[in-house]
Amino acid sequence: MSTTVFILNGPNLNLLGQREPDIYGRTTLAEIEAQCRDKTQALGLTADFRQTNHEGTLVDWLHEADAAGARAVLLNAAAYTHTSIALLDAIKAIGVPVIEVHLSDPHTREEFRHISYVGMAAAHTVQGLGPQSYIQALEHAAQL
Ligand code: DQA
User: Fold this and answer.
1) The domain that contains 127 carries what CATH number?
2) Spatial separation of the C-alpha atoms in residues 123 and 22, rounded to whole Å
3) 39 Cβ partners below 8 Å, 6+ apart?
4) Among 55, 102, 118, which residue has the most ligand 1 atoms within 8 Å of its CB, making it the best to mutate?
5) 53 lines ligand 1 (CB under 6 A)
């Protein structure tokens, strides 16, 4: 089985650190990436860490993870979580298990964040733990 875990990040997550710090904290995406690299190394895995602001790019990357035979995908689709049937379909279309990740807990926030199209097809969800959500999701990926 491949050791590669794709860690895919959606829109506005490039602004972590300065973006609504009361909700998302002060940790930057580069710092989360470094934490994920340390964790994957400790688990004997390899991280392919990416961010895009474009929905179709996330779809393409899910297909790419499948074609590459990745062990798992961690997906923080950000706002597309709550809107994207294309992401739901892509997750259903691929064989790689997708673990949904969120820094905040969308269920404690506005009602429009309570629906998760990603969660409808994801194998597992980790949310509300800040950057630690990624770390717990990697621990889950290691056990797959
Ligand atoms: C988020 C939660 C989403 O509701 C929001 O649109 C984001 C970030 C999170 O990580 O907490 O952009 O996915």
Assistant:
1) 3.40.50.9100
2) 29
3) 134, 135, 138, 139
4) 102
5) no
Domain interval for residue 34: 4-142
Kindly report the protein residue whose alpha carbon is nearest to atom 8 of ligand 1.
78
Share above pLDDT 70 across residues of the chain, in percent, rounded to a whole number: 99
Instruction: Compute and round to an integer the Cα radius of gyration of the chain.
Output: 14
Ligand 1 pocket test, pick from 101, 104, 110, 134 with the greatest ligand atom count within 8 Å of Cβ, gives: 104
Structure token pair of residue 23? 């909700």
Identify whether the C-beta of residue 3 lies closer than 8 Å to the C-beta of residue 71: yes
Site of tokens 């997906």: 75
Amino acid identity of 74? Answer: L
Average pLDDT value for the chain: 97
